[in-house]
Design a protein that fits this description.
single chain; Purple Acid Phosphatase, chain A, domain 2; five-stranded mixed beta sheet; globular; 159 residues
Length: 159
């Protein structure tokens, strides 16, 4: 008997800094889970994201005030056979993701989008969905996870 395949589509966003672009809302429509890698800057942004899909978020260096009391510095997400480590600033990473059994590390902070692989771990920085650097348009990432396989892609917003 064949087992059904497990698939999960993640919307990965970071550095919204209090603003959720309409283009981001459109790009995230239909995802199963949203991961926000910090610098949210507003409870309203989280509420708007939660209207789209369940949200896992971490606290960034700009996330301050009472609304952030429940935000952790790191989160672990498990979907479709994959363990994902979420942290705002990759330079604060204090573990070896591969040795710890993670397939993916999601971070933000730099406002520069990137997808890299090292030692069997996929590192995803969705860039900034509001305030990009280096002349890039705002970005986020869509990550399809299927039976332990990770397929990330960057989405340019308003380009």
């Amino acid at each position: 008997m064949k087992h059904p395949e497990k698939t999960c589509v993640l919307g990965v966003i970071s550095d919204t800094h209090g603003t959720l672009l309409r283009e981001a809302v459109v790009a995230l429509a239909g995802v199963d889970l949203i991961v926000h890698a910090g610098d949210i800057d507003s409870a309203d942004v989280l509420a708007s994201l939660q209207d789209i899909a369940p949200v896992v978020a971490v606290r960034g260096n700009m996330d301050r005030g009472g609304w952030t009391k429940d935000l952790l510095r790191t989160q672990v997400v498990k979907v479709a056979g994959v363990r994902i480590y979420v942290i705002h600033d990759i330079h604060a990473l204090d573990l070896d993701p591969a040795a710890a059994g993670f397939s993916v590390v999601i971070s933000g902070h730099t406002h520069r989008p990137s997808i890299k692989q090292k030692d069997g771990v996929v590192y995803i920085n969705p860039g900034s969905a509001w305030w990009p650097r280096s002349g890039e348009p705002p970005t986020l990432a869509i990550v399809r996870v299927r039976n332990g396989q990770v397929q990330p892609r960057l989405v340019h917003l308003g380009a």
